[in-house]
Amino acid sequence: MKFASVRLITSRLDEMVDFYELVTGGTFERPNPVFAELLTSGGTLAVGSDATLPLFPGTGLAAASNTSAIIEFQVDDVDEERRRLGDRVQVLQEPVTLPWGNRAMMLADPDGNRVNVYAPHTAEAKARFADR
Fold this sequence. Notes:
By secondary structure, this protein is an alpha/beta fold. About 20% of the residues lie in helices and about 40% in strands. The relative contact order is 0.18.
């Protein structure tokens, strides 16, 4: 099995696309007005309009209702990313080195989803990510 993607459902599709393009520096493909996807080397981040909810009856999906998942992006230098993003994003946690050796900062996207931007920082963390 291959992990393929994470899809966020939102009533603010354009704002979400703008946010993730700013954070990642990537460009979303828009095959349909109610759907966008950002292809990365690690997987795909898809964003669907809440107008797509009728396509998934009985699943309990709701726009902007996540409080338990963190979307993560690995970068080369978290502190440089913090400087680059400046005040254009909501920063929930400034860059900090975590106990498992990653340097990370936590952002909130327009729907309040938590977005962790991190880089392996200690020798142990760098070794852990060497083959990924």
